[in-house]
Amino acid sequence: MTDWKTRTKLVHTGARRSQYGEMSEAIFLTQGFVYDTAEQAEARFIKTGEDEFIYARYGNPTVRMFEDRIAAIEGTEDAFATASGMAAVNAALTSLVKAGDHVVAARALFGSCLYILEILGRFGVEVTLVDGTDLSQWEGAVREDTKAVFLESVSNPTLEVIDLKSVSAIAHAKGALVIVDNVFATPTFSRAVELGADVVVYSATKHIDGSGRCLGGVICGTTDYIRKVVEPYLKHTGGAMSPFNAWVMLKGMETLDLRVRAQAANAQGVAEALEGHPAVSQVLYPGLKSHAQHALAMEQMGAGGTVVSFDLKGGKDAAFRFLNALEIVKISNNLGDAKSIITHPATTTHQRLPEDQKALLGITPGLVRLSLGIEDLEDILADIRGALSVI
Predict the structure, then answer these.
(1) Are residue 194 and residue 261 in the same domain, yes or no?
(2) CA–CA separation, 57 vs 67, rounded Å?
(3) What per-residue confidence (pLDDT) applies to 131?
(4) What own/partner pairs with CB < 8 Å and gap ≥ 24 does 273-279 have?
(5) What does the pLDDT read at residue 125?
(6) Does 179 lie in the same domain as 59?
(7) Three-state DSSP class for 69?
């Protein structure tokens, strides 16, 4: 299995077949499990074996298939599936730290990720925010008592790309764990573990499902971290993934590589078409040579990803008129879907941030974030050009 290529792993790894020999992975819709004897129940609570389960909050055969499959793709020893992407971010951080610990994080983060850091601060964890693209700030912020560093490998929504290899070296020199939210890089383009990440977090709601059906998240890391740090926290706080959602994610993974590569090709085409358009003041896409971290993005991912952000001249009014004129591209706050989706971050995903913080992060009134789907590129471009003509 370790020699299989990515697409083969996405289809076959982690499979657990019942006595019926089913082709498609089975959904084990059960909360609990039966023991033959009281002695067997006692033994299982002391030590759970490879294919032994106690309760769906602790683990489930369908969920375990998903965990095994994503760990095989990401190149980690283990994984724990969660109820949502934010449950994964929360558990990855909260299970690790306590009052008095120090965390360094990139300031360009999804709004809910910033909120998690605020919560940690309320409970006595010291949090330092830095410009993730400035290595000197990481060097100055990471200390001997730093427990972890946290970052998005590609930031939401301004698509900054962080030098993961260098940040990991800085963190590891001080004994800190590197936790990476890798949603925009996707499992298809991820080299996070190879570049030094200790823990990789995904919102499976995005590209892994890929069809807007279910919430889910996953934390990938070493067996010690997953089973001794993350699992005790999650099994007692209840943020586990449901078996049905895990089954949906397993089905999504079978086509993940195909979808993401098609989406990235569409994103590249849209970004190139938008660059220089008279209604657009700036196009942010790591696949463009004009992007500040283009060379780094090509080195780390080999592609620009599936999301393009661009700033429309005329601010919020122009952005709203543009969004309202689109036909194929749908207005929603999700991303990574087979359908093309657009959002206005300043009034949705990042609306709770103070205006000065939005300005610092580059979230302007005219900025829109476009997640490309798998529709025909020419149809997407025609839709975008038609909406741009309105403004």
Answers:
(1) no
(2) 14
(3) 97
(4) 273/381, 273/384, 273/385, 274/308, 274/310, 274/384, 277/388, 278/313, 279/312, 279/313, 279/314, 279/318, 279/322, 279/388, 279/391
(5) 98
(6) yes
(7) helix
Both tokens assigned to 320: 């709203």
Domain assignment of residue 323, yes or no: yes
Residues 32 and 45 in one domain: yes
- Amino acid 172 reads H
Q: Could you report the per-residue pLDDT of 122-151, keeping only the tens digit for each?
A: 999 999 999 999 999 999 999 999 999 999
d(C-alpha 117, C-alpha 319), whole Å: 30
361 and 244, same structural domain?
no
Strands (E), 243-366: 280-284, 307-312, 330-331, 341-343
Domain boundary (254, 279, 309) is at 254
Q: Is position 1 within any domain?
A: no
What is the per-residue pLDDT across 253-287, written as a single tens digit (0 to 9) for each? 999 999 999 999 999 999 999 999 999 999 999 99
User: What is the token pair recorded at 330?
Assistant: 């749908």
The number of folded domains in the chain is: 2
Structure tokens at 368: 């829109």
Three-class SS of residue 135?
helix
Q: Is the pTM here over 0.90, yes or no? A: yes
**For residue 192, is it within any domain?**
yes
Amino acid, single-letter form, for residue 318: A
Q: Are strands 146-152 and 126-130 parallel, antiparallel or unpaired?
A: unpaired
In a domain, 314, yes or no: yes
- Domain boundary (209, 239, 254) is at 254
Same domain, 283 and 143: no
Residue 50 has what pLDDT?
83
The closest alpha carbon to 89, from 171, 206, 194, 182, belongs to 182
Domain that holds residue 273: 256-390
What is the tens place of the pLDDT at every residue in 142-190? 999 999 999 999 999 999 999 999 999 999 999 999 999 999 999 999 9
| pLDDT (0 to 100) of residue 3 | 87
